[in-house]
Each structure stands twice: as structure tokens, then as C-alpha cells.
Design goal:
alpha+beta; 3 helices; 10 strands; 20% helix
């Protein structure tokens, strides 16, 4: 597993490479437009079965003549014997109930102990992660949300990023670009220490003058830093056509139970390949990000 310094160093190097010179116009925007470009923004829409019952005692005198004339007084221990038999009969039931209760208490304790000792990043039948993050870019800002569901090996990851960038025509307007992605993930390595995944799916870029939809491929990794609640996170995604898009993100995440805080650096490269007006418009920018999330 690469160290956090190596991962961050690669990301910073990629950020420098992804900073081209200012292009003639914004990505996905016509160069010769005289009117303000339309902005498009997409938003994702017991009761115990046996109750103790004694045998009914018949204290009334018997109608049989022989019994009626019998005046011999009963012995004291004969009248007390049925009660002793009932107490002896109830003792095993009470012991069984106590045993069942102790067993149930022990089972609950074991389950609670197992739940407490299970690590937060241990592979589970279904893990749901969601969050939001704010980004500070060279020419504007961005806001992103994501939700991912993952099993022991397979999962799905969906992301939405909205960019608000300063217009390059000198006006006070803002150019808005929306990036969407939905990818299937497969964990090549999964343990209590982290995960390494490969990803494939679709991505779209909603620019001022055009909308692109194309295949997306990538990889991601998460790894614990010793016994601390910190993780190293890195992600790389690329879309080769019809437009070209490269998205690199690396940082740290602090897990506080099901709540987590993350921060790091994100670099983004966009190229419309000349599909708007025959002129290739490309740009790259990067900046820090800060996010909050939930894991359950």
C-alpha cells in the first residue's frame, strides 16, 4: 500500500501537469457568442405456557357412608404433603427460567461485544456512504455530493459536482458546468485495513453550449493509518471520449463513529475536443476541498 506522502505527491504533480495555458474560451462554450451564454444547471432529483396450578382439594365431606362415619382426624403431615409436592414441582421450572434468562443475557452480551469490537471499515454485507463537499478552485468554486452502496466486493458509486466559474469574456456573469457520474465498483483488495477498487460506468458534462455523455473508468483506494481514526483516500477517474475529462482527488478522512470529516486536494481537467465550434477548448484547475459525510 503506497504511503500517504507518495499519494499526495503524485496528486500534486498531476495538478501541475493539468494546469494548461488559458484557452480561447471556456470548456463547452462557443467562442464567438455575442449574447450571454445560457446557463444550465442540473440537480438530481410470554406468557409462560405452563402456569403453576395445584390440584384442587376437595374439603367437603364425602357422600360415601363409610367415609361419612369415619371420625378419625387426619394427620397434619397428610394435609401438608400436596403443598410440598407442588413446591418441589415448581423448583425445576424456576431454575429453568433463571437458566434461560442467564443464557439470553450472555448471548446479548456477546452480541454487543462483537458489535463493539467490529472495526468500522470491516467488510460488511452492505455499507452505505454519503456526503457533501465544498471546493475552492482557481477561477471559482464548486459543490459536490455523493452516495455509494457497497457489499463485500461489489458496489455502486454516484457523484454530482456543480462548478461556478468566472466568465472569460470580461463580464460579471458566471459559467456553470455540472458533472455527473454513476459507476459500478469492484474491490480487488478488501480487509479491515482498507480497500482498493476499480470502477467503470458513465459520466456526463453539462456545459454552457453542449452536453457530453461518455464512458468513465477509474480506481480508488482507502487505507487506515495505523490504529488511528484517520484514513488516506485517493481517487482517479477519466473519460476518454466524446470529451476528455480527468478527475484526481486525494486527502485524509477522520472517522468519528458513523460521522466523518474529510479534506484534501482535487484537480480537474476538461477538454471539449472541438465538438462545440471546431475549436478545441481545454482548461484545468485545482484546489482544496472540505467535506462531511455519514457511513452506516
Amino acid at each position: 500500500m503506497p504511503s500517504s506522502k507518495a499519494v499526495l505527491g503524485c496528486v500534486l504533480a498531476a495538478t501541475v501537469l493539468l494546469e494548461p495555458a488559458l484557452a480561447e474560451a471556456r470548456f463547452g462554450k462557443r467562442s464567438s457568442s455575442s449574447s450571454p451564454a445560457p446557463s444550465r444547471r442540473e440537480s438530481p432529483r410470554r406468557e409462560h405456557p405452563a402456569s403453576p396450578g395445584g390440584q384442587a382439594r376437595d374439603d367437603a365431606p364425602s357422600a360415601h357412608p363409610a367415609t361419612a362415619i369415619d371420625t378419625k382426624p387426619p394427620r397434619a403431615h397428610d394435609d401438608d404433603a400436596p403443598r410440598r409436592r407442588r413446591r418441589r414441582a415448581r423448583a425445576p421450572v424456576t431454575g429453568a427460567l433463571v437458566g434461560v434468562g442467564a443464557a439470553a443475557t450472555g448471548t446479548s452480551t456477546l452480541r454487543a461485544s462483537a458489535s463493539t469490537t467490529r472495526r468500522r471499515d470491516e467488510p460488511v454485507p452492505l455499507l452505505v456512504r454519503m456526503g457533501a463537499q465544498a471546493e475552492w478552485l482557481k477561477d471559482g468554486s464548486g459543490m459536490g455530493v455523493f452516495m455509494a452502496m457497497e457489499g463485500r466486493r461489489l458496489g455502486v458509486d454516484t457523484r454530482l459536482t456543480g462548478l461556478s466559474l468566472k466568465a472569460e469574456d470580461g463580464s460579471d456573469t458566471q459559467d456553470r458546468i455540472t458533472l455527473l457520474s454513476a459507476r459500478l465498483t469492484a474491490a480487488l483488495w478488501a480487509s479491515a485495513r482498507g480497500r482498493m477498487r476499480v470502477e467503470a460506468g458513465l459520466s456526463s458534462a453539462h456545459a454552457p453550449s453542449i452536453i457530453f455523455v461518455g464512458p468513465s473508468f477509474g480506481a480508488s483506494v482507502e487505507a487506515c493509518i495505523g490504529a488511528s481514526p484517520l484514513d488516506v483516500e485517493a481517487r482517479l477517474n477519466a473519460t476518454p471520449f466524446p470529451h476528455r475529462q480527468v478527475d484526481i482527488q486525494a486527502g485524509l478522512a477522520a472517522h468519528l463513529g458513523g460521522f466523518n470529516v474529510r479534506g484534501g486536494w482535487r484537480a480537474l481537467y476538461l477538454n471539449d475536443a472541438g465538438h462545440v465550434d471546431g475549436v478545441e477548448h481545454e482548461e484545468g484547475f485545482g484546489g482544496p476541498y472540505f467535506g462531511l459525510g455519514l457511513t452506516f
